[in-house]
């Protein structure tokens, strides 16, 4: 019908514009990465005349991005593992166990979602410095856990609330302890949510710049997103090499979005429906 067709176009056109606005920066960066410095200076918006893959190799070697890549991988892997462990345990406790103050604790975690990191970055940095955790892997991992744990707890609690309480009661009647219920029942049932939340937490940690810059000031301990800036010095104008570094840093994120987009969508909508 004409009305329904008009409604579809009204929704499709803004979404297409939004998609183009999102894709264009990536296409522009990839195009610049394939140019020579001279071609970029002459016309930065024209298509690259040839594919200069040596720009990627130069960016990888000149900035020491292999070390930064390893730093990011180690930090993100341990931070996400700790976030999922603590988040799943807290989500199980807040959603299925009946104890005094559980609602207050959940509201406290929910309130943590509305506190920008800029508000707590000074006291957090002071605490880390006094504890000797600045410029260490554990310091950055704990900072990520502190920042993203409220989000993880919220989503895991929302997911576990969709599981009938009768399942937990039946497991307790069969003789399982609280830990046994969590390990044998709730943890397997929470695998889909854990996968979705883990992907989102990994993206948050991988793309982070501010927390990493505060916790890892030394060049040899920087993460990949901070290390890319080494390609732009005070007097350097080699924008194609810098764009190549940005492209390398974006590849893992693009692969995650490309192959795990369904899990990402499920993680964003976790807990929005019951049943």
Residue fraction in strands: under 5%
General shape? globular
The main pleated sheet reads as: none
Class from secondary-structure proportions: mainly alpha
* Helix percent band: over 70%
What distance lies between the first and last C-alpha atoms, to the nearest angstrom? 34 Å
Rg over CA atoms? 23 Å
Q: Which regions have little confidence, pLDDT < 50, spanning 5+ residues?
A: none
Number of helices: 14
Output mean pLDDT.
84
SSE ordering:
HHHHHHHHHHHHHH
Q: What is the β-strand count?
A: 0
What would a concise description of this structure say?
The chain is mainly α. It has helices spanning 2-33, 37-42, 54-62, 65-96, 102-112, 117-130, 137-160, 165-173, 178-189, 191-207, 210-215, 224-227, 239-259, 261-268.
Can you give a write-up of this model?
It holds the Pfam family BPD_transp_1. It is found in: Cell membrane. It comes from Nonomuraea guangzhouensis. This is Carbohydrate ABC transporter permease. This protein has 14 helices and no strands. The longest helix is centred in the N-terminal third of the chain and has 32 residues. The mean pLDDT is 84.
């Amino acid at each position: 019908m004409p009305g329904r067709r008009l409604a579809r176009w009204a929704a499709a056109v803004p979404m297409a514009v939004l998609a183009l606005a999102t894709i264009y920066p990536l296409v522009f960066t990839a195009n610049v990465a394939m140019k020579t410095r001279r071609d970029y200076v002459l016309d930065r918006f024209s298509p690259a005349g040839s594919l200069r893959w040596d720009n990627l190799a130069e960016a990888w070697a000149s900035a020491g991005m292999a070390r930064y890549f390893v730093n990011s991988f180690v930090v993100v892997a341990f931070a996400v593992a700790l976030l999922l462990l603590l988040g799943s345990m807290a989500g199980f406790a807040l959603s299925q166990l009946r104890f005094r103050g559980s609602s207050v604790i959940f509201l406290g975690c929910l309130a943590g979602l509305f506190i920008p990191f800029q508000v707590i970055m000074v006291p957090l940095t002071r605490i880390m410095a006094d504890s000797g955790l600045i410029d260490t892997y554990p310091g950055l991992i704990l900072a990520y856990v502190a920042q993203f744990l409220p989000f993880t707890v919220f989503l895991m609690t929302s997911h576990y609330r969709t599981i009938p309480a009768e399942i937990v009661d039946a497991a307790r009647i069969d003789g399982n302890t609280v830990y046994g219920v969590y390990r044998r029942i709730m943890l397997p049932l929470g695998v889909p949510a854990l996968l979705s939340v883990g992907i989102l937490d990994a993206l948050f940690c991988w793309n982070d710049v501010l927390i990493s810059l505060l916790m890892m000031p030394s060049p040899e301990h920087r993460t990949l997103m901070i290390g890319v800036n080494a390609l732009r010095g005070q007097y350097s104008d080699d924008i194609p090499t810098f764009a190549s570094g940005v492209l390398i840093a974006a590849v893992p994120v693009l692969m995650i979005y490309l192959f795990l987009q369904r899990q990402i969508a499920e993680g964003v909508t976790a807990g929005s429906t019951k049943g």
